[in-house]
Known about the structure:
There is one protein chain. The chain is of the alpha/beta class. The chain has helices at residues 9-18, 55-68, 96-103, 120-129, 139-153, and strands at residues 2-5, 25-28, 41-47, 69-80, 108-117, 155-156, 161-169. 14% of the residues are buried.
Amino acid sequence: EIIGVDISERALCFARAFAWGDSRVHLFQSIDEIDRSLLPVDAVVAMEVFEHIPPSELSTIIERLHTVLHSNGILLVTCPTTNIPQNPKHYQHFSLDALLASLGAGFELLGHCYIHRVGLVETMLRRLVINRFFVANSQAWLKLASAIYRKFLMNATERTGAHLVAVFKR
């Protein structure tokens, strides 16, 4: 069974379209709307979510995630780091310490890494793929750009990563 939650009705419409006819997929606009017969869950994926939640509401959301997880459930979080400028749609970006503080004592960190190295090479590659003059759509060029990304930009450090990926156990 797959449960999806998004406050955006538009995002849920896209999800419904992609999952059309699959009875294993259940979509809700709030954690509180989830059919209790589907709980607890083995894993929660919060991919690029926490930065969209007002800091004053984040602890409540995290408590709700904790309650829907199985006692040994896994929480996977990805979020932008403080290494990149804050998007106007974001309330905050995170360091590992800030993420740990937000999660409180209910979760144990199993591991983390940083991805999407920021810097000159990243800027140059992005501009060579997408710019105001053209969008590269040659398969050969995109394959080369992807190889460059994987080799030089995908893995990062705490100082150079644009995004933090962390896995927690309840």
